[in-house]
């Protein structure tokens, strides 16, 4: 039997109890068809959004910026 192929990937996910977006760089076993095997222990309590090839630097995530409400105009619903 051949040697196991290992691939570095970035996994983007949510925890089941949070809406905060997380990411983690992992080295995972790669199947002959190119797909990687994510261990059940890592998948537990997570919703995986994407698996990216290599180490990905996340520049902005949803929720990273606080909205400055002074720059918004609130419309009167009755207008």
Describe this structure in words.
This protein is mainly beta and about 80 residues long. It has one helix spanning about 40-45; strands spanning about 5-15, 20-30, 45-55. The chain is built from one helix and three strands; from the N terminus they run ββαβ. A three-stranded antiparallel β-sheet has the order 2-1-3, with no helix packed on it. A hairpin with a 5-residue loop joins strand 1 (about 5-15) and strand 2. The chain is elongated. The N and C termini lie far apart (about 75 Å). The mean pLDDT is about 85.
Itemize the secondary structure elements and their pairings.
Elements: E1 5-15, E2 21-30, H1 40-43, E3 46-53
Antiparallel strand pairs: 1-2, 1-3
